[in-house]
């Protein structure tokens, strides 16, 4: 057992309100620079939708992630042989139009315009060429299902849904969507690291954050192709690739990453997970159906004396082990089994987990009046009297299976197509709601609550702590950041007495382009 | 004991004296010497006689006898100083001369205007007299194929010159294998040199190279007579054989063929590439509807 520590994240999708505050917080702090304008280390997508860059999930186009072979796995679009063959032309690299051409407006035109009959306009200009452009796309062009025919209907996750089901998803009265905020997953088996010919990308030993060394990067851009989540971006100005750094300077100082700190819906959780690094290869090479299970099996119980012993042997400090024991992510992912990795079939073992959205499954749709319905235009909203929120029917789980969002769609996102697994999680979420409704409103009989809980594999106590961590969690409950012990790290490298009391700012070394 | 300061001053004095002596040696002495009229004939020999005769007929450059009647003295001085400048400037007489003499540029002799004047005086004085050179007699009679082969080896550097001079191929086209010759690091294409300059001209160049770079290259390591002989045989035979071969046509064809081949290879290798942006269709439709 080779125990290592990983700072992992959980995003609770039921809570995301799609405000994009997280994206803006990240942009302001890290990517508001020339060459980085189009980089959204954090972005929020509407689902169904094609996301950013468009159709990033479709690996037939982008060739990201790993592919299973007989015994182990290969990078789909990169790796030694392919990189060498494509050394002068990387054939699956996204182009700027797959993202969007970043733009600003000539605001000065508004101020300097002479008096006219019409009000002046500020023309949009490209942030790449500086020339006026017609804006064609933005980082969340398909927000809230806008442009559905172009975007939502082309969602790669709809691929194995029957056409009738797809059609149903987009009917006006059934229309539903949810938000999917994304950052780099700081994977355990990162395709970006594996693909880099310069060895510029590395996973930090102490907390598993994946970083690109700007001094070593030689602009091969293999990571841009290899990352199936398209979370490594190429900066055309500096000639280096960049990616989410999980705000490691903030983490080292004990602050939560900017996106998490600013999250309005408080959907984000961060904490240490201990895992067994010996299992990485086998877990990533499992059959698709067992991928989620094998990934979760790698995560170790931080309270197990054996694990603690092994962790200490690997040099993990006591304070980190303590954070792992208090970690909210461990509870969501392992203890309660509520959070799932996004697209486990990419086999990078992502360390960002999502609590899937329950969506309004508590509404059951009544039988429609056929005769009346036929008189209406097909696109008209169709109401009838049976339509109500029914939370106390006998057929509790029926509503989950007939949810407004087909289970298959959710399964394509979070469990590599396994509907049972996603149903388990949704059942748990539902059971917690039923339990809390029983407690607060009291209109659900106790045995029904009990039945719901036990069928979901929960008990009242667990349901209450899930409820607490979901709805009432304070800042320190959501973010349990292990002390970085920078003092020790610095002392390993230099004698602190030399610089004690001296201050200053500026570049220590300016990154240079090319060789 | 002297103070260091005084010592310094004394040293400075020595330096000044030394400097003026050196300057005198460098500048004043040569001028005095060159004024000696007896040396003019030698100067003519060193600087001019390789390519020119006075009344002995054309070598590489024209016979200089009566040159002062053909051009004005001022024009001649300027031409000798730097013919290249005049040609570049488009002086009609200079260009005509250049054209008439196989477009071989006369190297700048690097001598003072006074020296040029004296040489011109010397030519004028000699012009009336009998021919300074006698008829050139070919030395290539009875040359064997072995001589030709040895000439080729010398030319291509397979055999070093006995005095250590660089092989011809360092600067000139390989005239026996003309295939990629357009692309070689050649200085002057000498495939047709033999026919244009003649045996006498080439022999003169090889014996005492007039061109600055070539002169420098063979300074202190002249070619042996036998070597010159073999080289002449080689130049005569292979030069005439390949004089009219067109090296660029084959090169171009191969180049074109190679390009097409490469393009196919590239197209094949990246046949599965991502050809357009995923948003291409959307943009196309948007632009169409905007119009
Ligand atoms: S999400 Fe992409 S960039 Fe981030 S660690 Fe995984 S493979 Fe690398
Ligand atoms: S800030 Fe939070 S609630 Fe808002 S979009 Fe981002 S993740 Fe969702």
Fold and architecture overview:
- Chain A is globular.
- By secondary structure, chain A is an alpha+beta fold.
- In chain A, strand 10 and strand 11 form a beta hairpin.
- In chain A, the strands form 7 sheets. Chain A has a 5-stranded mixed beta sheet with strand order 13-12-1-15-14, sandwiched between helices. In chain A, strands 2-7 form a two-stranded antiparallel ribbon. A two-stranded antiparallel ribbon of chain A has the order 3-4.
- In chain A, 42% of the residues are buried.
- Chain A is built from 22 helices and 17 strands.
- Chain A folds into 2 domains: 1-100 and 137-358, Alpha-Beta Plaits; 359-476, nitrate reductase domain fold, CATH 1.10.3650.
- Chain B folds into 3 domains: 16-127, Cytochrome Bc1 Complex, Chain D, domain 2, CATH 1.10.760.10; 145-241, Cytochrome Bc1 Complex, Chain D, domain 2 (Orthogonal Bundle), CATH 1.10.760; 251-290.
- Chain B is built from 13 helices and no strands.
- In chain B, helix 4 packs across helix 5, helix 8 (145-156) packs across helix 11 and helix 9 runs antiparallel to helix 11.
- Chain B is mainly alpha-helical.
- Chain B is extended, with a radius of gyration of 30 Å.
- Chain B has helices at 4-34, 38-47, 67-70, 73-81, 83-89, 92-100, 113-127, 145-156, 193-207, 212-217, 225-242, 247-269, 280-290.
- The interface between A and B is medium-sized, with 20 and 15 residues.
- The structure holds iron/sulfur cluster (2 copies).
- Residues 16-22, 44, 179, 181, 263-265, 267 of chain A line the site of one iron/sulfur cluster (SF4).
Provide a concise account of the structure shown:
Chain A is of the alpha+beta class. Chain A contains 22 helices and 17 strands.
By CATH, the architecture of the largest domain in chain B is named Orthogonal Bundle
Helix run count of chain A: 22
User: What's the story with the biggest beta sheet of chain B?
Assistant: none
Overall mean confidence score, pLDDT of chain B: 75
Could you tell me the number of beta strands of chain A? 17
CATH superfamily of the largest domain in chain B: Cytochrome c-like domain
How far is the first residue's CA from the last residue's CA of chain A? 40 Å
Name the chain pair with the biggest interface and residue counts per chain: A-B, 20 and 15 residues
Q: Based on the structure, what is the oligomeric state of the protein chains?
A: heterodimer
CATH topology of the largest domain in chain A: Alpha-Beta Plaits
